């Protein structure tokens, strides 16, 4: 007779197969069982044909990888514990001592911290290019350039670059391109495909995405992805991913799977509310400039239009304002503090609207020519009723005046 305590571990009951429900199950593991030594020796996880160890994937993570690859128009996907880890994985996998990497001057600041704080110590150099000037990008490419980062729209200042031209330059110069696709999220434009209505391929090599933002949509999960269409490149990234052991937790994967079905609807709702508030912000005298790619006055508006399919287009739920420099810092801080529905906090893509005042001088090589002077404040628009958000901004403006 087997002792009942052993049965608590090795119970003979097997639930029947064939369970199907709206959400795929959560399969969690470090250990994965093999039916035989032969299976242990022969199983292959790299092509997702079997399971070998939790870090290399379970049915849950395979499912999310496939969905994110499809969302972005890619074929291969790796999951990592944060969007920042996705940027780090691309760098660690593709750059070696003596190489150079180029980043737009409006790159996500922590990506600049990777190149300045980590890669520099490994003998990998970097340069920042003007995101609004493809010629400047081209001029900085040398025989040592092995990777060019692209970002659309740019971090915080939301300039929309001439992505098609920049990718074309990199392809001609045979340099790999990696796009931080968090803003577009696979919904505003396709990083791998043809540009709508034209024969111009965008065709980046790698798309990195902070799933923390719209795919999670809850403000409660950190995750990142790295998508490609090139099996050789994917394998290279996958081996680095494996060697460093940067896997994800399956409860987090399940949260993202749970949120994906509503992602397109949420993105559209964030977009609509954001544009309405950005247009309103343009009528406020305290804001000398409003930055959102759908506004004709915003830098790179026509590039956004070309890439996202014309007048209607699609955009993420972010806009920034530049507050007139006649207001001292204490007043702009008071404006942010006076907001009630908007919370002070980093990240975006969740249901709650957020605000962050930035010290742009410390984030750019020089003050961008296309920006007026003043204090930059970025809003991320949640899913609250837009008239309530506008009323909140209106009452907080009283604290600024
Ligand atoms: C948030 C963000 C990241 C990093 O994502 P985390 O999951 O917070 O590490 C990277 N790039 C962009 C553009 C982001 O907005």
Give a written overview of the molecule.
Helix 5 links the parallel strand 2 and strand 3 (125-129). This protein folds into two domains: 57-261, Type I PLP-dependent aspartate aminotransferase-like (Major domain) (Aspartate Aminotransferase, domain 2), CATH 3.40.640; 263-400, Aspartate Aminotransferase, domain 1, CATH 3.90.1150.10. The mean pLDDT is 95. By secondary structure, it is of the alpha/beta class. The longest helix is centred in the C-terminal third of the chain and has 20 residues, at 263-282. It has helices spanning 4-7, 37-42, 59-72, 83-94, 109-117, 134-140, 163-172, 231-244, 250-259, 263-282, 301-308, 329-338, 386-400; strands at residues 76-80, 100-104, 125-129, 145-151, 176-180, 206-210, 224-228, 287-291, 318-324, 343-344, 354-358, 374-380. The chain is 35% helix and 16% strand. It is built from 13 helices and twelve strands. The strands form two sheets. It has a seven-stranded mixed β-sheet with strand order 1-7-6-5-4-2-3, with helices on both faces. A five-stranded mixed β-sheet has the order 8-9-12-11-10. The structure holds pyridoxal-5'-phosphate (PLP). The site of pyridoxal-5'-phosphate (PLP) has 13 residues, from helix 4.
């Amino acid at each position: 007779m087997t002792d009942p305590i052993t049965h608590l571990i090795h119970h003979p009951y097997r639930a029947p197969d064939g369970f199907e429900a709206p959400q795929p199950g959560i399969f969690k593991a470090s250990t994965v069982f093999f039916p035989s030594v032969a299976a242990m020796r022969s199983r292959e996880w790299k092509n997702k044909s079997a399971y070998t160890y939790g870090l290399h994937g379970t049915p849950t993570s395979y499912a999310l990888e496939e969905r994110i690859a499809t969302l972005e128009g890619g074929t291969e996907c790796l999951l990592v514990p944060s969007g920042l880890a996705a940027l780090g994985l691309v760098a660690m996998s593709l750059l070696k001592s003596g190489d150079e990497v180029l980043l737009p001057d409006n790159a996500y600041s922590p990506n600049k911290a990777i190149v300045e704080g980590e890669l520099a110590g490994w003998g990998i150099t970097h340069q920042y290019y003007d995101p609004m000037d493809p010629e400047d990008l081209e001029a900085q490419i040398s025989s040592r350039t092995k990777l060019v980062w692209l970002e659309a729209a740019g971090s915080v200042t939301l300039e929309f670059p001439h992505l098609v031209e920049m990718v074309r330059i990199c392809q001609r110069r045979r340099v790999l391109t990696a796009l931080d696709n968090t803003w577009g999220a696979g919904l505003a434009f396709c990083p791998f495909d043809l540009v709508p209505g034209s024969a111009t391929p965008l065709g980046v090599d790698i798309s990195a995405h902070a799933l923390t933002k719209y795919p999670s949509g809850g403000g409660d999960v950190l995750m990142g992805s790295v998508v490609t269409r090139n099996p050789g490149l994917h394998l290279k990234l996958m081996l680095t991913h494996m060697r460093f052991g940067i896997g994800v937790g399956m409860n987090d994967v399940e949260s993202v799977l749970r949120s994906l079905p509503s992602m397109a609807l949420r993105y559209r709702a964030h977009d609509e509310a954001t544009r309405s508030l950005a247009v309103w912000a343009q009528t406020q005298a305290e804001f000398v400039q409003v930055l959102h790619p759908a506004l004709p006055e915003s830098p790179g508006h026509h590039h956004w239009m070309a890439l996202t399919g014309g007048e209607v287009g699609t955009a993420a739920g972010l806009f920034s304002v530049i507050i007139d420099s006649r207001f001292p810092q204490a007043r702009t801080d008071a404006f942010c503090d006076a907001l009630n529905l908007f919370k002070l906090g980093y990240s975006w893509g969740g249901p709650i609207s957020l605000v962050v005042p930035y010290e742009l001088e410390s984030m750019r090589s020089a003050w961008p020519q296309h920006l007026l002077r003043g204090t930059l404040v970025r809003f991320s628009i949640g899913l609250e009723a837009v008239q309530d958000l506008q009323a909140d901004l209106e009452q907080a403006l009283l604290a600024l005046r």
